[in-house]
Amino acid sequence: MSTKIAAVVATTALGSTALVACGANEDPTATNDRNDSTVAVGSANFPESEIIGQLYTQVLQNAGVNANFQGGIGARDVYLAALQKGSIDLVPEYSGNAAQYYAKGKPEEADLGPGTEPKEVLSTLDKVLPEGISAGEAAPAESRDSYRVMPDFAAQHHLTSLSDLAAFAENNTIKLAGNPELETRPYGPEGLEKVYDVPKSKIEFQPISDGGGPLTVNALKDGTVNMADIYTTSPVLDRSGNEVSVVELKDPKRLILAQQVIPLMRTDSLNDKAKDALKKVQEKLTTDDLKQMNLRNSGKEKAEPKQIAHDWLKDKGLVS
Q1: What's a single GO CC term here (predicted)?
Q2: Separation between Cα atoms, residue 23 and residue 20, nearest integer Å
Q3: Strand 227-229 and strand 147-149: pairing?
Q4: Which of 135, 134, 172 is nearest to 156 (CA)?
């Protein structure tokens, strides 16, 4: 989801005071005075979530809905608890992560293994959401893990898809970079072996703790590794802040779960006017849009989420 690990470090100031004051697993918005007529829009504590939260807030305000933004709440456990308690009314989420989160302890309702289609992910999410919480329309935008290689490397070894890796691994080692937890994730080396017949013994994993950021990109660029896990909405920047051209290997067997952007909301807190306004954002928001907005924030411009959101909404004709 964007360079999330690195971004959390970079933006901790937005939410750290509240988190320290009340504990990492508590709701930092719980003591806020709430006006029942106001839609409180929250976000996680990384820039992409804040940008989407600002999109929601500003399009609601433009539609005449009394809305305010409470960004940088914390990790998933914290902001979803805030939503459940009613400290916030709306928060941006990702379909696969949300479905997996709410499906815990409900294996009979959630089959989210390899091969799960995006529509099945959304259907599962609807089944496992708690009473009073609902998901709005999913956007085309998807912020998920993806495997990338350098263009010359892809051309030399005829790599366009994860399905091509087994043949490559017959005589070569896959040197894979990613967050440390990727090593044990179902879509990591074990998943590549199970779904795409890539021997785990032929995958040399190199943990890099920057969420697919500049350290990972540099390792890919200089040949330290030959494949890297980078989020689909992350701008691919080296340590000098320059964009680097890479090739995303297709995932025809859907090893990696769909992660479409969705608004999670308290069902009774948003009227039809508010839901219609959100729908307009969801219909227009694409993966490339998010990538470009993230680039404005994390690249050389260093634009603020609020301004980035306003510019996108204005460009799409959704605000004046």
Answers
A1: ATP-binding cassette (ABC) transporter complex
A2: 5
A3: antiparallel
A4: 172
Amino acid (one-letter) located at 204: E
Residue 187, Cβ neighbours under 10 Å: how many? Answer: 22
Strand, helix or coil for residue 280: helix
pLDDT of 1 reads 54
**Integer Cα distance of 240 and 91 in angstroms:** 33
Which tens digits make up the pLDDT trace of 155-194? 999 999 999 999 999 999 999 999 999 999 999 999 999 9
Say which CATH topology domain 39-143+257-316 has.
D-Maltodextrin-Binding Protein; domain 2 (3.40.190)
Q: What is the pLDDT of residues 201-210, one digit of tens each?
A: 999 999 999 9
Q: What are the sequence ranges of the domains in the chain?
A: 39-143+257-316, 147-248
Query: Domain 147-248 is classified in which CATH homologous superfamily?
Result: Osmoprotection protein (prox); domain 2 (3.40.190.120)
* Residue 12 clears pLDDT 50, i.e. is over it: no
Amino acid at 254: R
What's the gap between Cα 56 and its chain centre? 16
Q: How far is CA 134 from CA 113, 138, 233, in A?
A: 23, 12, 25
105-133 residue pLDDT tens: 776 667 899 999 999 999 999 999 999 99
Q: Give dist(CA 76, CA 245) in Å, integer.
A: 31
Q: How confident is the model at residue 34, as a pLDDT?
A: 54
Report the SS3 class of residue 250.
strand
Do 147-248 and 39-143+257-316 have the same topology in CATH? Answer: yes
In whole angstroms, what is the distance from residue 47 CA to residue 290 CA? 11
Q: Is 241 exposed, middle or buried (CB count within 10 Å of its CB: 0-12, 13-18, 19+)?
A: exposed
Q: 175 pairs with which residues across the strands?
A: 204
**Per-residue pLDDT reduced to its tens digit, 223-270:** 999 999 999 999 999 999 999 999 999 999 999 999 999 999 999 999
